[in-house]
Fold each of these.
Amino acid sequence: MRLAGKVAIISGAASGMGAATARKFAREGAKVVIADVLEREGRQIGDAIGASARFEPLDVTKEESWAAVVAATTRHFGKLDVLVNNAGISGSAEQDFYSTEAWHRIMAVNATGVFFGIKHAIPAMIANGGGSIVNLSSIAGIIGSEHVHMAYNASKAAVRLMTKSVAVQHAKDKIRANSVHPGVMPPMRTSGRTADPAVRTERMRVIPMRRPGEVDEVAYAILFLASDESSYITGSEIHVDGGAIAI
Ligand code: NAD
């Protein structure tokens, strides 16, 4: 099994790509902490996986919430090997373009939330002799997007560079950090206009593979980066986008 004996925290694992990743990690031998603001959905995912999964309530924007999740993980499973910073929200350019509130809300979850996760995971990983951090950015962290609030682009670009910063600064601690950049996937819970079928059809025209991605296609990339199969890969990024930004 590809993650045998490893302990992982996945933020935002009550839904979408986080839930798919949690299922894959457990199947590959990991103990998984499903951490999310959505308690009912998160517990359901955990119950379906079974004894190798555990739900912990987490609001990524609250530093004390991250501290509690990391503490609960090491208390129950003995250590921390893998952190997947997956929780994220979107925001609509059409409705919120000038909204300062949207800027702060999106940056708090997508950028500050990732910083808090990294900050609290690293000491636990150092205590364990190393680890792997996988951060969910987006192709929107590399190129601009027509329909999302600019904070989404800015926050995902921040995730991309925080990842490289951690890779450089913590290689000495045997901690690797890499980012994953999905393209058009099943819509997020907070997708605005990008969830519109007409917009999605339009976007397919500029994707060489002419189809949206599936959550498992992202989960496989995360699995590879979490596992020792990627032991010499750090500060790197994988685009899971059907070739969207290769053009
Ligand atoms: P989703 O909306 O299905 O899931 C996001 C999860 O994050 C939810 O379970 C939600 O409850 C959780 N979350 C939101 N705010 C939180 C908070 N404050 N604290 C803890 N958890 C919180 O979205 P998804 O499509 O599975 O996206 C997963 C990641 O991939 C996100 O970071 C997203 O930005 C990124 N992404 C998604 C797409 C896409 O098209 N779906 C494309 C590129 C990147």
Amino acid sequence: MPDFKNLTLSTRENILTVTINREKKLNALNKATLNELKEVVQTIYDDKEIKGVILTGAGEKAFVAGADISEFTELNEMIARKFAEEGQEVMEQIENCHTPFIAVVNGYALGGGCELAMACHMRIATQSAQFGQPEVNLGIIPGYGGTQRLTQLIGRGRANEYLLTGNMISASKAEAFGLVNHVEADKEAALNRAHEILITISKKAPIATGLVVDCVNAVFNDENGYQTEANAFSRCCGTEDFKEGSRAFIEKRAPEFKGD
Ligand code: COA
């Protein structure tokens, strides 16, 4: 794994924790950090030893407080389109990755931070977490997919409310809205919960879990999700892991999946 300036990486039981490490700036996503995230995501695609990823922010105050506003002065209409497209690409890579990502949201997840958390496959928040898309306060709108994913996750009426007012969503509201999977008392408990879920997933057949990601994403893409599911189901039935899974059930033992 390469060395990063703004990310800290650690691995335990094949689960990689990526911590965005700009605590003094509330882990705001500057260009350099976004590029590092892109690089780490590409490494995760290539490294089959990584069975799951926890994405979190350094410290207790923020997951990510947004794109780095100090870099906004250079934006004009042309550069802004590229800015949005580059950010959207990283979010899409996370969303489409067959290695599951869980965002552990340990404080503010605003703007690009909320968008990053929403691109992950699941979100676990601490009680103090606050979500929001406050871009309207700056005279802009979300550019890293926030208008789309917030609507997908919490529904049209609520998304309109929070996108138009810029108000924050507390952890308890986020849980009630389905924006987060679980709320835990503190960061340690949230990290443990995420680790536990990823370990459970890591024991399943990787081809099947990867295809689940594709099929769930198909709901939101312009494709026939039922067809995607039928194709994926058929593909699973051609794998060695499927044979092993059925054999293990009949032999009353735990399956040993190999990813082929
Ligand atoms: N971009 C750049 N710097 C940011 C930032 C961002 N999105 N969010 C916070 N920071 C910086 C602050 O400028 C400050 O830096 P400084 O100490 O050098 O002045 C530091 O992080 C701490 O933030 P501060 O505002 O002092 O903390 P707070 O507790 O008073 O407020 C927030 C916390 C999150 C409410 C506030 O920082 C905020 O509104 N941030 C911007 C959120 C936003 O609009 N995000 C979307 C961007 S598109």
